Amino acid sequence: MDTLFNSSETNPRGIPKAPFVENVEDFVKEPSDFELCFNKFQERLSKYKYMQESKLSTISQLKSKIPDIENALKMCKLMKLKQGGETESLKVNYQLDETLYTKAAIDVSEDLKVGLWMGADVMLEYPIDEAVELLSEKLEAAKDSLKIANEDVEFLRENVTTMEVNCARLYNWDVERRQALKVAQKGTEDLKI
């Protein structure tokens, strides 16, 4: 049974592929092995579901993060475009909170620097060229991560389905085995009478 779960088939991130049990009798040699086998399948199924939930959470975070990076990048590109122009300031509306906006005049002189939130309440100041480069790299990395997470969710969805089918097949096999055992016991009792 352990060889069934030690398959070397994985996706590119190392998530193992779920085995498919074609014939339960070849897999469960002794009826006493059923509980152990069924529990292992249930455990693997719960691991796949946990990984799937984790990946879905990552996707949700990335989907909210990507527009923020895109907006910051657009603003930095706009400031770079206006830098050194005929006007010394760029008038913009910017978001303070979800529903609160205000107006600002941004100095777009030759020595333009921007502050970028790095997370964990940390803001770093960058020259505009470095900020554009950094945000472009972050945007590309976030889009790549989103693509990978979506691939993993699809892979996990297939494996969850496979494991659910395996569990159903094992359960149905056990029900049929128990019914056959009852019929056999009843038949021997009828012969004794």
Automatic annotation (TrEMBL):
Family: Belongs to the prefoldin subunit alpha family.
A GO molecular function held by the record: tubulin binding
Pfam entry (one): Prefoldin
Keywords: Chaperone, Coiled coil
GO BP of this protein: microtubule-based process; protein folding; tubulin complex assembly
Full protein name: Prefoldin subunit 3
Function summary: Binds specifically to cytosolic chaperonin (c-CPN) and transfers target proteins to it. Binds to nascent polypeptide chain and promotes folding in an environment in which there are many competing pathways for nonnative proteins.
PANTHER family, per database record: PREFOLDIN SUBUNIT 3
Subunit structure, as described in the record: Heterohexamer of two PFD-alpha type and four PFD-beta type subunits.
Coiled-coil regions, chain positions: 132-166
InterPro entries attached to this UniProt entry: PFD3 (IPR016655), Prefoldin (IPR009053), Prefoldin_subunit_alpha (IPR004127)
Gene Ontology CC: cytoplasm; prefoldin complex
